[in-house]
Input
Amino acid sequence: MAEGAEVEADVIAGRSPSPFWAGEGAETSAERTAGKSSLPFRLADMNLNRPVPPNVPLSDGLNTVLKEWTFHYRLLRLEWKRTHYATIAFGFAALILGSVSVELWNGGDAKLTGLDGITAINGFQFFQMLISMICWGWFAYQAWMLFPVMRVHALSLLVMWNGMVGAQIFFHRTNPSFPVGFKLSEMMEGTLITLTVLFFLFFFWKAVVETRDLHVEINHLHQDVRVMEEALAEHSLKGWSTLFGVWILLIVVSSWAGLHHVSSYGESNLGFLAVHLLTGLPSIPLLLFILWYPQRMLGTQTSVQTRAALDASLEMSGQELTIRQVGASCPECGADSPLRMSDAGEPMHPCLAAGCSTMVTVGTNCTACNEPMPTRIACPVCGVNAPALDYMPDQEAW
Output
């Protein structure tokens, strides 16, 4: 009761409850930074009260993933609305209605196929099948509307899921007990479909990662490499990638268990049906998360694609690469600097003499007052004295 009251108090106060793996009070440091950015908290502020001990193998990587999952969980709790949960409910209904059926329990009649097999289904089961198809259609439509940046990928991931089911159909076609007693000569079609699905899933993951890299390079460009590294860490996709791998594993197991359940006609294999549901149901909210998080990170004005696809689209459209113009700034504190590049590519700075604002090429004398312009410029904010060229940003083309 006390724990429930604490969660309720957190929700009323506008705080997102902590997941079970984060530990109590883990949100304290995140709450201190609320209001400092467009997010209510930052990934760098996530803390684990019960981190994986250092003596455990891969403890650093596990703690990193757990921190990112904590961040995902809190952000999801704050930003997901009823529409998201309603979409998940429709997905659950679609999977359950399509799986829990008398027609599947007894295996049906193996002698009836095609249109004859469909017409042989009694009225209630046929209606149940139609409702399941409608729910899947609504689920796909909602995914299309909720994630405009990921629309094509939403449909492609659903196709890949069905591709895994199709591969299992070929695997079980001549061997109902697959993978027991498998023969390589009977696995060609299923293996080809599986490899094709994995190929497209890999390129989806690669597109998200490379779009993230471009996003950081373009929107968080900075002269200081350390600042760039911090921005890249803030946009880490390790936790997302792990959940994407979990989703792939779940749909593979769910597809196999579902086909294994119906492959032995007339036999009762309710255990495989249970495995099919227990792995298929979590795949639905995971799919929405996989679509939601990259869009939340990258914004709604981007396009998720690989660098090669971006280069090809620019070349096909006849567009030229553009240079992102960024003003000079202090290499230490990032404060803006009046240093500019001349048309000849030489750094220029306003004259340092009192009352003179003539732009002077670094390393020469002012043409108005003859005041020398040193090659090193002092930052008026932090006082660091650095070469003039260090103030100029690297120009990135994309």
